[in-house]
Design goal:
By secondary structure, the chain is α/β, with parallel strands linked by helices. It is built from eight helices and nine strands. It starts with 7 loop residues before the first strand and ends with a strand. It is globular. Uridine-5'-diphosphate binds next to helix 2, helix 3 and helix 5.
């Protein structure tokens, strides 16, 4: 891997990428594969913050759509992100990568609470810090959690590793003419309601001038390519 262009990154992984080819839950083989990519990135000297979603287990909106109280369902979603964080921690530590999980919902016997200065120290020591439970409040998503931690930890970039290879001007599954952007401005994303991250996450990145790189993490080796400036991706940034 060529030398990284960034010093500190925040990598957001959608929960669904942890299920590999399953329909639900966590595929340990696929998590191990993701962990290898994270380790390789860490080995180039990058400081890495990780945020993992929970959509492979539970999404608050889905619960609410079936009659649950939204806040209650969101608490369940946040707990799902903690499970994913622990699965990723396990996979990384099996590769010899030191990690810490910090959860926005306190869970003292399982992981640390979110403490920025402590997270700083972990990063300085080469540990990967996995931030769980999003922002710790219902009515948010882990995209917002990722944007918040990226700002708080002064990350150079927010990399969103997901199942699609970038941002399109229409839904590529529904419209074969849909075009992928190479770069796109934050305000275009917001005005046209493009499917990247939720609006609060995009606005937070815009206000703190943090570029968002959207790419497919399902493709092997893609994280390294994107970090080296290549790969198929969309960059959301100012004035694009
Ligand atoms: N969640 C929440 N507050 C947060 C982050 C997450 O309530 O700050 C809940 C919410 O119910 C969400 C679920 O956790 O649906 C899983 O997170 P998300 O949908 O962001 O996961 P992803 O789509 O990235 O897998």
């Amino acid at each position: 891997m060529s030398s990284p262009r960034y010093k500190r990154i925040l990598l957001k992984l959608s929960g669904e990428v942890l299920m590999g080819n399953q329909q639900f839950g966590i595929d340990p083989d696929f998590v191990a594969e993701l962990a290898r990519e994270v380790r390789d990135a860490r080995d180039t000297g990058l400081e890495i913050c990780l945020v993992i979603g929970g959509g492979n287990i539970f999404r608050g909106m889905a619960g609410a759509a079936r009659g649950m109280d939204r806040a209650q369902a969101d608490y369940m979603g946040m707990l799902a992100t903690v499970m994913n964080a622990l699965a990723m921690q396990n996979a990384l530590e099996q590769l010899g990568v030191h990690t810490r999980v910090q959860s926005a919902v306190q869970m003292d016997t399982v992981c640390e609470p979110v403490i920025r200065r402590r997270a700083e120290r972990h990063l300085e020591k080469g540990r990967v810090v996995i931030f769980a439970a999003g922002v710790g409040s219902p009515y948010f998503t882990t995209d917002s959690g990722a944007a918040l931690r990226a700002a708080e930890m002064k990350c150079d970039v927010l990399l969103k590793g997901t199942s699609v290879d970038g941002v399109y001007d229409a839904d590529p599954k529904a419209n074969s003419q849909a075009k992928r952007y190479e770069t796109v401005d934050y305000d275009t994303v917001l005005a046209e309601n493009l499917k990247v991250m939720d609006a609060s996450a995009v606005a937070l990145c815009r206000d703190n001038n943090i570029p968002i790189v959207v790419f497919s993490i399902r493709e092997k080796g893609n994280l390294a390519r994107v970090l080296a400036g290549g790969g198929v991706k969309t960059i959301v940034q100012k004035g694009a």
